[in-house]
């Protein structure tokens, strides 16, 4: 039995969809299904009722999930303790961050950090918002990076988890240019020719941001869903291939905008400004972390 089978099973129980759970676990749907079957063979019982839609847990599956959650939490907590004890002397950080932040923000941020503090050993764990929060709450990271919008808060207790704003980003519609360097697809589109929309899933943070933006827009754009994913990097790849428009963080496409590979698909009225925050457990009084936190507060682009 492998830990990844248990993680697959928990993802399936959470998403109630083989395709979405497979995407979240970064594995093909056929490979994901085989791993669930392997887990069921190891347990000796069917854990998923595949006759219903969406698939639900069998009684055996419900019992196994209760135990699986507890076992995984204990394993990861123990791993965190061991990792802390095994760290070599010096400045080190365990960081949880969304995939987009890990790819597009953290490399330069860590480089700037080293210029101020000297060598810093950092372990970055790219994950979704939900799992990032769990890592912070369970003490499995010192810092958690996440996007923030005042109408879409993360609901972390401010008395227990401090935050500093470390950057401002913009969720903006982007598309490939045509031969005249104009947008291949331009908002708002028309009823006769709706724009192919490469969208986020509704439950992802960027998906919620996009729903907020479109919900308060003065006019409704004409869009037809073309592709859907939780990850901005997947959307970016499809936009780069000319498949349609997608709302992407400016930080993720800055280079492509500069060199003309991508262009805005509409004016700034279709943009949404979002903050980038870093969180920490206020009870963690590590000397280096306290020093780092004071530095981040001093250089923050906004107060609070």
From TrEMBL:
InterPro entries membership: LysR_HTH_N, LysR_subst-bd, WH-like_DNA-bd_sf, WH_DNA-bd_sf
Pfam families: HTH_1, LysR_substrate
Domain HTH lysR-type: 1-58
One GO MF term attached to the UniProt entry: transcription cis-regulatory region binding
SUPFAM superfamilies in the cross-refs: Periplasmic binding protein-like II (SSF53850), Winged helix' DNA-binding domain (SSF46785)
Keyword terms of this UniProt record: DNA-binding, Plasmid, Transcription, Transcription regulation
Keyword Transcription applies: yes
Top-level taxon in the UniProt lineage: Bacteria
Family membership: Belongs to the LysR transcriptional regulatory family.
Name the UniProt record assigns to this protein: Transcriptional regulator, LysR family
Species classification: Bacteria, Pseudomonadati, Pseudomonadota, Betaproteobacteria, Burkholderiales
């Amino acid at each position: 039995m492998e830990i990844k089978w248990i993680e697959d099973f928990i993802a399936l129980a959470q998403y109630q969809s083989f395709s979405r759970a497979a995407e979240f676990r970064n594995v093909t749907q056929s490979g994901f299904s085989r791993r669930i079957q392997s887990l069921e063979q190891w347990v000796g019982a069917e854990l998923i009722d595949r006759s219903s839609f969406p698939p639900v847990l069998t009684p055996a599956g419900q019992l196994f999930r209760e135990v699986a959650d507890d076992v995984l939490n204990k394993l990861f907590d123990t791993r965190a303790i061991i990792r802390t004890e095994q760290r070599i002397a010096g400045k080190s950080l365990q960081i949880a961050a969304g995939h987009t932040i890990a790819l597009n923000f953290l490399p330069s941020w860590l480089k700037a950090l080293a210029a101020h503090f000297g060598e810093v050993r950092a372990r970055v764990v790219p994950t979704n918002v939900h799992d990032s929060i769990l890592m912070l709450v369970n003490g499995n990271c010192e810092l958690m990076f996440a996007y923030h919008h005042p109408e879409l808060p993360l609901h972390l207790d401010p008395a227990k988890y401090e935050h500093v704003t470390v950057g401002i980003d913009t969720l903006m519609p982007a598309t490939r240019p045509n031969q005249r360097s104009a947008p291949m697809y331009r908002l708002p589109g028309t009823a006769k020719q709706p724009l192919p929309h490469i969208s986020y899933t509704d439950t992802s943070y960027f998906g919620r941001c996009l729903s907020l933006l479109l919900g308060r827009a003065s006019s409704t754009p004409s869009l037809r869903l073309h592709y859907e994913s939780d990850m901005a990097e997947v959307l970016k790849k499809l936009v780069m291939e000319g498949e349609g428009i997608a709302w992407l963080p400016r930080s993720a496409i800055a280079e492509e905008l500069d060199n003309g590979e991508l262009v805005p698909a509409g004016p700034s009225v279709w943009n949404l400004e979002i903050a980038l925050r870093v969180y920490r457990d206020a009870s963690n009084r590590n000397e280096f972390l306290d020093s780092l936190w004071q530095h981040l507060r001093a250089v923050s682009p906004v107060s609070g």
